[in-house]
Amino acid sequence: MEQEHRPGRRTLLGAAAALGTGAVVLGGGAGQASAASRGTGHGHGDSGSYKDLPVPTVIGHRGGSGYRPEHTLGSYQFALDNGADVIEQDVVPTKDGHLVCRHENDITGTTDVASRPEFASRKTTKTVDGEAHTGWFTEDFTLAELKTLRAKERIPGTRGHNTLYDGRWQVPTLEEVLKWADEQGRKRGHRIWLHIETKHPTYFRKAGLGLEERLAKLLRRYRRSGRNSHTFLQSFEPGSLQRLNRLGVDCPKVLLLDDLNTRPWDFVEAKDPRTVADLITPKGLKWVSGFAQGIGPWLNLIIPRDKNDRLTKPTTLVRDAHAAGLILHPYTMRNENTFLPADFRRGTDPNAYGDVFGAFKTYFATGIDGIFSDNCDTAALARADFVKG
Fold first, then answer.
1. Which label site among 184, 280, 296, 330 has the fewest CB atoms less than 10 Å from its CB?
2. Residues near 305 by Cβ (< 8 Å), separated by ≥ 6?
3. Contact call for residues 234 and 214 (beta carbons, < 8 A)
């Protein structure tokens, strides 16, 4: 999940950014006090309540996607073994209605489908949430067909080391992941926390492949539909979370938020003029609190960047969201220079690691409750440093 959820922005990831030097120190004591006041959690949030998770919570973004091809059982296992408190899944449907874990329904860049001659005729152009994309799409494949494909690294130019694992894993179904989580929970003696996103729900509902009913059915089957069932649900579309509430799914819900001038796609379809800028006002956050327990803002909504990609002053979003009773799980921290604010880049190689610990410390100091990270081991170490003070 993240800014590139909106299909046209995915290509921005991996592009080399201008590198800079220097460091930013923004606050510190206030954020640490805030984290301490919310507690550092009890083990693994074993009660099933998100309020008992360690704070700041480390969310394995698409699993351990900094080290393994994203949304594979290998990626999820890596995250679980290396510091993630919660592991993220994005779900999209197949032609025959099964939910599978992919960041996008366009699987051109995350599977070997382009090299498979038997599926060459499936290549097409579709408009998803207002933007045209050419490739291969999950909704044009049955599950049996999709299972013949193999997963691969999405950004090989940045993460060449991950290509070692190309072809090792299939595209998992959400049900397979739920079974995996149950198995891992039995081995560890505690349930595994998941963070499940509905992708492009309005698009799929119009295509006759509504996500929420299918998701609710699976959550009930695996005892993950209750308030304390070790599961977050997230979406960029408020209507998806509201629909899940109406279906009786009581998991804590997180509304994802893109850039200030963007609008949730269900708002666009309904001609609702509100933008993200409207939703992060105290009035907007109060409205969000009527159907969700948290927000997942783009990190630039927490601390904006200037024209040189350097951090500026934190906004009031953390304070305002907490005042509305909402937690914050912003996205996404990655170790490579190309993704970091210019303040924390080191050297001239965009794919080398920068001063990630410095960046984590700065974001944690704002008082956020958790963070999505491709590098959960780094995030867990940064959290330990921050909590120690």
1. 184
2. 311, 312, 341, 342
3. no
Q: Determine the straight-line distance between the first and last CA of the chain, rounded to whole angstroms.
A: 30
Q: Is residue 144 part of a domain?
A: no
Residue 60 contacts residue 74 (beta carbons within 8 Å)? no
Instruction: Provide the domain limits for residue 291.
Output: 3-9+20-104+167-388
**Rounded CA gap, 58 and 31, in Å?**
16
CA-CA-CA-CA torsion for 353, 356, 357, 360, nearest 10 degrees? -160
Residue 54 to residue 43: CA distance in whole angstroms: 7
CATH (domain of 47): 3.20.20.190
Residue 145 inside a domain? The answer is no
Number of domains in the chain: 1
Tell me, yes or no, whether 327 lies in a domain.
yes
Peptide bond preceding 198 in cis form (omega within 30 of 0): no
Q: How are the residues of the chain apportioned to helix, strand and coil, as percentages rounded to the nearest 5?
A: 40, 15, 45
DSSP 91-155: EEE-TTS-EEE-SSSB-TTTBSGGG-GGGGGG-EEEEETTEEEEE-BGGGS-HHHHTTS-B--S-
pLDDT, tens only, 336-364: 999 999 999 999 999 999 999 999 999 99
Residue-wise pLDDT tens digits, 158-192: 999 999 999 999 999 999 999 999 999 999 999 99
Q: Identify which has the larger pLDDT, 19 or 225.
A: 225
Cβ(58)–Cβ(370) below 8 Å:
yes
Residues forming beta bridges with residue 258, ordered by sequence position: none
Please tell me what DSSP assigns to residue 157. Answer: T
> DSSP states of 60-102 as a string?
ETTTTTTTS-SSSHHHHHHHHHTT-SEEEEEEEE-TTS-EEE-
Tokens describing residue 387: 């909590």
pLDDT digits (tens, 9 = 90+) for 210-235: 999 999 999 999 999 999 999 999 99
- Average model confidence (pLDDT) across the chain: 91
Any domain includes 335: yes
Is 2 strand, coil or helix? coil
